[in-house]
């Protein structure tokens, strides 16, 4: 009984600070989804952009230069499409995430039994987008970045002999850390992925992809055409790789 009451309180507290797609004006579309073998394979990115614009969003590919009004990365949604296909049925699902990789919306699965890949992926994505259209999206004019700074964080509950009561602590970031962050134009932001993280700059543009290993202080890393490792040394991150048989170590500013 006490456990149920605790989870009920946690749910109510967290639900009050939930986000909606209406909080976002624009969406970033990656050039390649996880299951695709090449950029815009089956023209899925083209179709995604078309539908998002039709819904009412402003949408940009991840390599596009975007207007200055969208420079704050946390005011942007990030689109993804997951492939949940079975042997005979193509199944796609659309997912919107915030700048921290938290899911804001997940569509119903779009299905197609077409045998031709181009037709099946197109049909499945169109079916999935029906859930997005059903949202009747309308931007509410709010700034998500400002909103997130005031969102409280729910920490583990204080357990008494009578009842478990969640403790809500206001989220505060030190002024010093913000000043340091703003002074570093090369700061990269780690966006969670299924394989690890993709490191994004302020545009936002994917600068590096890092892949999890058994060591949390070490990642396999790819930056453009260069392959190496991202390692933590004395609380700092370094991208290390070989060039002309010489070890190169580049310091990287990353916010996980």
Description:
By secondary structure, the chain is α+β, with helices and mostly antiparallel strands. It contains five helices and 16 strands. It is globular.
Please name the defining characteristics of this protein.
eight-stranded mixed β-sheet, 23% helix, alpha+beta, globular, 16 strands
Summed up:
With 256 residues, the chain is an alpha+beta fold. Helix content is 23%, strand content 36%. It has 5 helices and 16 strands.
Radius of gyration, rounded?
21 Å
Largest sheet: 8 strands, mixed
Secondary structure: number of strands: 16
Spatial arrangement of strands, main beta sheet: 15-14-13-12-11-10-9-16
- How many helical elements? 5
Strand content: 35-45%
What is the average per-residue confidence, as pLDDT, rounded to a whole number?
79
**Shape, principal axes of CA atoms:** globular
Helix-strand category: alpha+beta
Share of helical residues: 10-25%
Draw up the topology in text:
Layout: H1 2-15, E1 26-29, H2 44-55, E2 58-61, E3 76-83, E4 90-97, E5 103-106, E6 110-112, H3 117-134, H4 144-149, E7 153-159, E8 164-169, H5 175-183, E9 188-192, E10 196-200, E11 206-212, E12 218-223, E13 226-233, E14 236-243, E15 246-252, E16 254-255
Parallel strand pairs: 1-2, 1-3, 9-16
Antiparallel strand pairs: 3-4, 4-5, 4-6, 7-8, 9-10, 10-11, 11-12, 12-13, 13-14, 14-15
Helix pairs in contact: 2-3
